[in-house]
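Appendix B. Chain record.
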Amino acid sequence: VKHYAVFVGHGTSRLAGPEGGGTERLNIQRILKVNRTLFIGDRDNVYRVSLEPTTASEMRYHRKLTWQSNQHDISICRMKGKHEAECRNFIKVMLVRNESLLFVCGTNAFNPVCANYSMDTLEPVGDNISGMARCPYDPKHANVALFTGGMLFTATVTDFLAIDAVIYRSLGDSPTLRTVKHDSKWFKEPYFVHAVEWRSHVYFFFREIAMEFNYLEKVVVSRVARVCKNDMGGSQRVLEKQWTSFLKARLNCSVPGDSHFYFNVIQAVTDILELDGRPVVLAVFSTPANSIPGSAVCAFDMTQVAAVFEGRFREQKSPESIWTPVPEDMVPKPRPGCCAAPGMRYNSSSTFPDEILTFVKTHPLMDEAVPSLGNAPWIVRTMSRYQLRKIVVDNAAGPWGNHTVVFLGASTGTVLKFLIHPNATSSPAPAPPGSQSVFLEEFET
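Structure tokens predicted for this chain:
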């Protein structure tokens, strides 16, 4: 990779080097590509870098926004027992708000804050707003954010102690909504990985402790949850200012056999790609830290993801009982979790009967897991010295733009490159794990 230009924090002018004579290393939290421009969200800084082809060994920024926490926020952060290195403004949300605005949030010394900036000049536009429920407090915490229809959908924690995990909708014209607070059926210590919009829903990918396996030790599983974009919240009696459409299902990335071998820990997910005419996301999974080291890439068809949410619900009748499917005749009508729409009997979720809202509140979990395409991982790596953490896909690779190439980033900085054959997955019988991919190369960064 020596022939690729790298970014180390220098500007185009000789004077525009990193502060402090270049002593502070970059701490990159977010990267956003907009056409031929790259925005890099760092600690206290956002850089704007042009992606025009260069023969130089270094990419340099053309504009830089410095957004530091003020002394007051830093002293309160230090007073609460945090280290000086944590009491900085780590950029955790960076989104295109419209054709000229960038929406940016930072941890701001454990007092998160958001603001709009001009994409062109990186000058602030308007006032700062609170980053609570939009951005985590701690730079180490995972979060996801997505703009659609002028509304901001976020998944993060809302408090300093990181106890209250939330999927939250704000900004735009619709009411602010959140997930139910401190209810382990909705969330149990989630780690949010990615969000995508598809049709009338926003889908969130995350991992959490599985309450349905409460008879075992703590088991972490991977999930996909969804909410309706047009959800207006519940009635004044049930789910007021909360989602009426939140449902979640397990993601199954496993090697088939008499006893499946599961890769339970989701690490990264792509946006929706069109592969072989299907809307597909590719996701990286690993084994838990105390297991044998292993990673896999599974593909999920969004139509199959959506179908699971039309299936059976799962419930736990009492705190001691095991979880079982809800019989179809016990599910109220209209179906809990559906999106209200004009022309329906209920044209807004706030008019749903209490019976529907109560069912959604107490039954967020679907019975079936989402199967992976081909019912087996497309790529498997076991007994390596690393685990896979990141994924990037080029589905128009090769001289004719008709190949799909996957780049996988490992915990050690190694990058693996694979060629994918998505058309090998139409057969219903499980394919041998890894048969849909060809390993091309491995390089160190």
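Further analysis of this model is presented in Appendix C.
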